[in-house]
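In response to the reviewer comment on reproducibility (Comment 2.3), we provide here a single inverse folding case reported in full, input and output, so that an independent group could reproduce the run without further information from us. The structure tokens appear first.
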């Protein structure tokens, strides 16, 4: 094509038409579809404004008066005529058709206007199709880029060669650099967040897991972004690991001004509101459930020793032996201790999910129940939102009864929740996809496993392997199984990435 030639794309059939610059703006017929077009260069620009006209109309009124209507487009003019408002008694003017002179309207003016409007309509459809194709192409290119980035960052490092490949692809696909950076940031942050979520899934954060998370963040040149809730979950999971890896006799002693028994050590101290749970015939104070109410002893310090839980405040003191506490439940608003003798207790936090209070709760569970703990954030409160205050007459006999549980549970909470690893090996993913919520599972010890003598395999009810418990978890859970402690397991949930989470119950 020479410098004196131009290209026009037919608005009706997309055929490229070559024309001389001297013919620009003239009418022509498309050699393929025979449609009338105006020769204007439209390969890279929008010519619709050059094809459109602006009109004014004088509509006569009584006597010598008239109303001037406008400006209006070709389409508006045609619509006005179709509705009967544009008649031979009207005058019209347009820069393109009447040289901005008022002329009496006649229907001969409509033919070229209709032709022009038809071309504009066809050109609009052509441009819309181009925009739609471009949007689809951009979407496909973004998805291809996203998949490549996901693969490139999966090892926690984005090499210079991988960066170069991303830049070259973006250049060829004509993707703006800001779009590329947005996709890269989203995928990197998503990968690091998924690593954190995986590590928190079982409520235990090992040093190896934390090291891997930090390594990925450094290697991918991103900062770990955490909500305050996730920061607390990491802190609790980190503490749960330390507690589980520490023998009970190894817990350090802290200084506290309190009278102790022989060989008794203070292990932790936490400010709480000490409450006893009492049964009352007439309501008073904070209702918990049924006839159970909280009786506040006061706010002070609860001290966990190697033998007892002690409470000391300005006005009251209390104590509870380790052996009297059968079960501990952690709520967002405090710690519930179910006792075999004496009143059950509730250590109320000053605020919900108080970090120090939740750490104290983990230590209580680890030492008093003598089982591994998991650092999950509680989501429910023991104290209902509504409270009732009224005069009460207490029954000494009913107060002395042992309260086994504040909330009778039809569906018991699992003792542990574990994530299954190795689910991608062999046909395990296939069998995981066939599982249903609450479906029974088997936990099978493999002491002769050459990779890990603590290995615990997870199988479905037909004996098909679904994977194993994480090595850090199996390190302590296998010991519980080997000591003859009975456990049952079922499906808690299956994540969107086909990762299996199991609920484990004590028999």
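Designed residues, in position order:
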């Amino acid at each position: 094509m020479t410098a004196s030639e131009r290209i026009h794309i037919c608005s009706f059939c997309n055929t490229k038409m070559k024309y001389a610059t001297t013919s620009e703006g003239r009418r022509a017929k498309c050699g393929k579809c025979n449609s009338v077009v105006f020769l204007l260069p439209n390969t890279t620009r929008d010519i619709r404004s050059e094809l459109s006209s602006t009109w004014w109309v004088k509509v006569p009124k009584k006597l010598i008066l008239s109303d001037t209507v406008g400006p209006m487009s070709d389409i508006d003019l045609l619509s006005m005529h179709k509705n009967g408002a544009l008649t031979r008694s009207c005058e019209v003017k347009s820069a393109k058709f009447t040289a901005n002179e008022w002329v009496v309207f006649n229907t001969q003016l409509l033919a070229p206007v209709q032709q022009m409007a038809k071309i504009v309509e066809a050109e609009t459809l052509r441009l819309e199709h181009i925009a739609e194709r471009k949007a689809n192409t951009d979407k496909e290119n973004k998805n291809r880029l996203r998949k490549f980035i996901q693969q490139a960052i999966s090892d926690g490092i984005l090499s210079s060669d991988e960066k170069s490949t991303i830049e070259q692809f973006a250049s060829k696909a004509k993707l703006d650099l800001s779009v590329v950076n947005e996709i890269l940031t989203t995928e990197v942050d998503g990968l690091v967040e998924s690593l954190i979520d995986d590590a928190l899934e079982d409520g235990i954060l090992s040093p190896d897991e934390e090291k891997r998370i930090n390594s990925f963040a450094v290697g991918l040149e991103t900062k770990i972004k955490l909500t305050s809730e996730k920061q607390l979950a990491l802190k609790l999971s980190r503490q749960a690991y330390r507690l589980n890896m520490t023998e009970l006799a190894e817990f350090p002693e802290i200084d506290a001004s309190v009278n102790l028994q022989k060989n008794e050590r203070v292990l932790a101290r936490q400010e709480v509101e000490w409450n006893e749970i009492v049964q009352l015939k007439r309501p008073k104070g904070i209702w918990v459930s049924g006839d159970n109410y909280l009786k506040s002893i006061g706010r002070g310090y609860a001290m966990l020793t190697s033998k007892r839980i002690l409470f000391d405040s300005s006005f009251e003191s209390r104590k509870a032996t380790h052996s009297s506490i059968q079960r501990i439940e952690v709520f967002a608003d405090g710690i519930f201790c179910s006792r075999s003798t004496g009143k059950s207790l509730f250590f109320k936090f000053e605020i919900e999910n108080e970090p120090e209070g939740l750490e104290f709760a983990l230590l209580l569970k680890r030492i008093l129940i003598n089982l591994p703990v998991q650092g999950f954030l509680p989501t429910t409160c023991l104290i209902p939102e509504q409270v009732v205050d009224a005069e009460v007459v207490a029954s000494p006999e009913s107060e002395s009864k042992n309260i086994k549980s504040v909330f009778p549970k039809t569906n018991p909470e699992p003792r542990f929740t574990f994530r299954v690893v190795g689910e991608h090996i062999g046909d395990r993913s296939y069998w995981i996809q066939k599982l249903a919520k609450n479906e029974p599972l088997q936990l099978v010890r493999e002491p002769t496993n050459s990779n890990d003598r603590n290995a615990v395999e997870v199988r479905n009810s037909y004996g098909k392997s679904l994977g194993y418990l994480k090595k850090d978890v199996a390190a302590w859970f296998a010991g519980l199984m080997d000591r003859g402690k009975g456990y049952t397991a079922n499906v808690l949930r299956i994540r969107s990435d086909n990762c299996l989470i199991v609920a484990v119950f004590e028999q």
